[in-house]
Every structure is written in structure tokens, then in C-alpha cells.
Amino acid sequence: QVQIVESGGGTVQPGGSLRLSCKMSGSIFSTNTMGWYRQAPGKERELVAAITNMGTDVYADFAKGRFSVSRDNAERTVSLQMNSLKPEDTGVYYCNLAKYLREPGEWWGKGILVTVSS
Questions:
Q1: What is the secondary structure of the chain as a DSSP string?
Q2: What are the phi and psi torsion angles at 30 (to 5°)?
Q3: N- to C-terminal Cα distance for the chain?
Q4: 53: closest CA among 101, 107, 109, 5?
Q5: What whole-number distance in Å separates Cα of residue 8 and Cα of residue 34?
Q6: Per-residue CA distances from 20 to 5, 23, 27, 44, 77 (Å)
Q7: What is the pLDDT of residue 77?
Q8: 27-48 pLDDT, tens per residue?
Q9: How far are the Cα atoms of 64, 74, 98, 118 from residue 37, in angstroms, in the given order?
Q10: What distance in Å separates the CA atoms of residue 80 and residue 71, rounded to the nearest whole number?
Q11: How high is the pLDDT of residue 28?
Q12: Distance between CA 109 and CA 53 in Å, rounded?
């Protein structure tokens, strides 16, 4: 049974930063691609960033230059550093055991809320 747990969300002012972390258990983490997705109120879930086991990464256009995804295979964690946050970044952020870099797999964390507000 795969378990994925996100942490690090919260409320931040516009222009601020947050670092999300995701820890996975129950599967071979080091060989898997991991992704971060988000869902804003009233919108569909969308890819934020993803990273392969070898460190190849992809970003949504809105994330380029502001967000950075990284992983620690020894700790079985993947992180998302978010800088220069905007109110439109508000939403629930999900960690996913991905099928491919731009395609989610069936295993999701429960999500964590990020609120960007003054």
C-alpha cells in the first residue's frame, strides 16, 4: 500500500515563499517519478512540477522561474520550493506517484492547502 503525505502548507503574503514536502512509503521511491499538482477553487487539478528518479524535471509555465522541485531518494521525499508567491497560487497542492513526467499515476496524497493572501 502506497502512502503519500504532504507537509509545509499554510498562509503566506504575496511575494513570500513556502516549501512543501512529500514523503512516500510502500513503494520503491528511488525508481519513480514524482509530481506536484494543485487545484484552485472552482478549477481542475493541474500539474505544477514533476521530477524523475534521475532528476529530470518539468514545470508548468506559471511555475517556471518561481518554483523548484527536488528530491532526496535516501529520505524518500520530494520537495517543492515556491518563491514569489501570488494570490493565484492559492489552492490545494497534491503530491503524486506519477506515471510519466506529465501524467499522474493513481496514488495521491491527501493534499495540503496553500493560501496566498495579504
A1: --EEEEE--EEE-TT--EEEEEEEESS-GGGS-EEEEEE-TTS--EEEEEE-TTS-EEE-TTTTTTEEEEEETTTTEEEEEE-S--GGG-EEEEEEE-SBTTB--SEE---EEEEE--
A2: -65, -20
A3: 40
A4: 101
A5: 17
A6: 11, 10, 21, 20, 10
A7: 94
A8: 777 789 999 999 998 999 999 9
A9: 14, 23, 10, 24
A10: 9
A11: 79
A12: 19
Contact 17, 81 (CB under 8 A): yes
Written as nine digits, the cell of 62 is 506559471
- Residues of the chain below pLDDT 70: none
Radius of gyration over every alpha carbon of the chain, rounded to an integer in angstroms: 13
